[in-house]
Amino acid sequence: MAKDWVREAELLVEEVLDREAAEVDRSGVVPPGHFDALAERGFYGFPLSEGMTPDTMIDTASTLIGGCLATGFVWAQHLGALRAVAFADNAALRERYLARMTAGTYRCGVSYAGARSAPTLFVEAVDDGMAISGTAPFVTGWEYVDAVVMSVRVTDGAAESVATLLVPTQDASGVTVERIPLIAADASATVRLTLDRTFVSDEHVIAVKPLDEFQSGRGSLTDWINGALSLGVLSRCVRELKGQGIDAYDAQYAALRTRFAAAMGDAEATYALRADIAEAAVRAAAAGIVATGSRATLSHTTAERRMRQASFALVCTTREPIKDALLDRLRPVELG
């Protein structure tokens, strides 16, 4: 019988994440037990489980992220790394790391700084490996992960390509780390990395692909699954409003949620859906502020935290098409 991942996520939120989310927000630290609990219940490898469906993927991810944004944000990075290793061209690397990553005993972050239209991470071939130089502006989970899967722009040769590398964090040479304070999920230990010819051995090269092939294989699917972050924030805002006797947002949430499966693989539908959810989360968080009243002006109250989280979700993992769609929705209504 297939495991009920959504129910398992709900139980973890009820038993662990929700109880400690406010303290995580105040302290800026995720207890190690959060990540251990995710591993013990199989969530580090759940996307690879038999019978996984788009609905289960989104509902599970949004539930966990809604339970504790910082914990969920760190964990979600691992899922991107897991996908890269699971489909790696390097069979030896896959054999060495995939089982541990699936079990959650080897945890990873990600950086796509070399795959963007204006790349900031570059790599060149050297003896027995590659040397990375440049900047990774946002790397989440640095204090909690064993490695970072990095997409870096290859500078050798005439044609542009992207190398995807598994970069262990321990004893990495030539790396400068700067902690970045965030308005929400600050406990995620998000940092800016500056790399100066950081060596990565050939055995840690996941794949090297032409730029257009890499981008065509990543875009809309990544944007789609990243929508779980704003959906998770929205779901918590709606739930807390209902606890205050306000159910006006229930139908909107349900309608947005039902659009997810159909949007998978459709870039334009995904951009529109992501913008609609992010806008709805901000409006629901604002309603929570108003419903709470003057107490919401106090730092680290639930309503204040949700407002910060909804603002965070407006721009986190948001690319230009989603940003443009959001700005269109937030344009003032002309009075006439």
UniProtKB/TrEMBL annotation:
A GO molecular function term, named singly, is: oxidoreductase activity, acting on the CH-CH group of donors
Q: Could you tell me which InterPro entries the record lists for this protein? A: Acyl-CoA_Oxase/DH_mid-dom_sf, AcylCoA_DH/ox_N_sf, AcylCoA_DH/oxidase_NM_dom_sf
Which named protein is this? Alkylation response protein AidB-like acyl-CoA dehydrogenase
